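Severity: low
Component: inverse-folding endpoint
Summary: output formatting inconsistent between runs
Steps to reproduce: submit the following structure tokens with default settings.
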């Protein structure tokens, strides 16, 4: 009995991670009508980007990125407001505007570098033959020469999630938006998503290799709760998932963008006629889906080793959770994910009390099979899912 309870706790932790990713998957399908098979690899990418920040980048690197980005955004905004916007409002001076913008950009680069130098005292950047604009040399310099402590895991997770969001938005602009404009069929979109998944997965293998990786974290003994060994990381995963899901509920129910997302999911054409900016809703959908999925991948890295194919192995439980909960319903996906996660862990548990019957137990290598069986049974007997399929 204790083994089953232990597996239930493990299943809740795994189900929490599946829930974060399944919500993103059901949002993209409910709003974009896209069965995104690259979703699992986005989860993997978020985990590996957090791993990069946690094990390679250090605090000075992070400060550089933060201050450089803040300075660049501020100066570009000033350039737009003070110079380019007034010039655009006048007629016949496009060449003047171009020359002013080029000259201003040159000044801004010099000023930005001066400010960064003043703030961070990065004196070594100007030594030797290291070029200011040679990003590869500069990053190598920062990684090899700087021995300050590595980034905190939460900063690393935020870094991984932010870069993942940027990448999914890039995919939206160069891939999904043109396909929608050409009215590509759902089959075409699905095949493209499989190709994108292969690209992401192999890029991860190329960058980090096929060997398992793990975060640079201290180890702590498990907490004993009535005989159950619960690690601190699993507690963190469950609590973080609850917080993110609560934030999602508030966003969907009480904010303008959340109500717009629900309207677009119900009827995109009617939402457009009603004045809702559908393109903005699509971008917000990718931001939420990509952020939650990447965050889920980072959380998964807290309780297991990172592998390039871990997201691909989770895509089946994700789809099982989405179908079980009702396609397009994020709250149903959460419930479905917990059911799938707990079922996978409990079904492959073999209590010692079974004695001779242990030889009939299902091995842990069949966990994915449990998710597949659940998905098949739901499709056969209740294809609409347990809950109404809508946001």
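Observed output (run 2 of 3):
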């Amino acid at each position: 009995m204790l083994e089953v309870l232990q597996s239930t706790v493990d299943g809740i932790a795994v189900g929490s991670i599946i829930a974060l990713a399944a919500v993103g998957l059901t949002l993209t399908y409910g709003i974009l009508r896209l069965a995104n098979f690259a979703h699992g690899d986005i989860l993997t990418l978020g985990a590996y980007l957090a791993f990069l920040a946690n094990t390679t980048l250090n605090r000075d690197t992070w400060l550089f990125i933060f201050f450089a980005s803040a300075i660049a955004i501020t100066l570009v905004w000033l350039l737009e407001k003070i110079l380019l916007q007034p010039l655009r409002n006048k007629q016949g001076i496009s060449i003047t505007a171009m020359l002013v913008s080029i000259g201003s950009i040159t000044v801004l680069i010099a000023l930005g570098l001066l400010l960064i130098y003043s703030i961070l005292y990065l004196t070594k950047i100007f030594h030797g033959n290291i070029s200011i604009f040679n990003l590869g040399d500069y990053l190598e310099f920062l990684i090899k020469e700087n021995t300050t402590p590595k980034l905190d895991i939460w900063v690393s997770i935020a870094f991984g999630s932010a870069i993942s969001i940027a990448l999914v938005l890039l995919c939206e602009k160069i891939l999904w938006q043109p396909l929608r404009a050409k009215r590509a069929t759902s089959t075409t979109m699905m095949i493209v998503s499989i190709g994108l998944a292969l690209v992401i997965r192999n890029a991860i293998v190329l960058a980090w290799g096929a060997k398992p990786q793990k975060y640079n974290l201290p180890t702590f003994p498990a907490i004993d709760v009535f005989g159950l060994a619960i690690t601190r990381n699993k507690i963190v995963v469950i609590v973080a998932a609850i917080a993110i899901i609560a934030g999602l509920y508030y966003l969907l129910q009480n904010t303008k963008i959340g109500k717009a997302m629900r309207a677009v999911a119900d009827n995109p054409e009617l939402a457009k006629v009603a004045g809702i900016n559908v393109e903005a809703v699509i971008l917000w959908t990718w931001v939420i889906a990509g952020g939650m999925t990447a965050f889920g991948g980072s959380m998964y890295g807290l309780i297991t080793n990172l592998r390039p194919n871990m997201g691909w192995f989770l895509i089946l439980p994700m789809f099982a959770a989405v179908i079980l909960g009702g396609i397009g319903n994020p709250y149903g996906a959460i419930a479905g994910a917990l059911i799938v996660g707990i079922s996978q862990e409990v079904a492959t548990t073999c209590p010692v009390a079974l004695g001779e019957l242990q030889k009939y137990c299902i091995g842990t290598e069949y966990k994915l099979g449990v998710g597949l069986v659940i998905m098949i049974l739901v499709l056969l007997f209740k294809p609409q899912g347990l809950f109404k399929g809508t946001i």
